[in-house]
Amino acid sequence: MVFVELPEVGATLAQKDTAGVVESVKAAADVYMPISGEVTAVNEALREDPSLANTDPQGAGWFFKVRLSDATQLDSLMDESAYAAFSS
User: What letter would DSSP give residue 75?
Assistant: First the structure.
């Protein structure tokens, strides 16, 4: 990653809305909302060092935090084991 665009704190986004952009040296891609809600925090460290998304995605490389507006949307998301099976 060479660039990350994050949503603004306070933005209310629907599931599947574009929440930001990630860019590598070869391509750019949209970041989509997995659930609907209000953005409550963004990772400013990621703006300064986008490579954190690669080196520590479940730690220091988090993108943003969201206050859910519809908890039932969580039912359609993969858990860790389903994602591991999907990505392998």
Answer: G
Answer yes or no: are the C-beta atoms of 62 and 49 closer than 8 Å: no
**List of residues 6+ apart from 61 with CB closer than 8 A:** 43, 46, 52, 53, 54, 55
CB 66 within 8 A of CB 31: no
CA distance 14 to 84: 26
- Give the sheet arrangement for strand 12-13, strand by strand: 12-13, 37-42, 64-68
Nearest Cα to 31, choosing from 49, 17, 45?
A: 17
Q: How do residues 57-87 score in pLDDT, each as one tens digit?
A: 999 999 999 999 999 999 999 999 999 999 9
Q: pTM to 2 decimals?
A: 0.89
Q: What is the pLDDT of residues 31-55, one digit of tens each?
A: 999 999 999 999 999 999 999 999 9
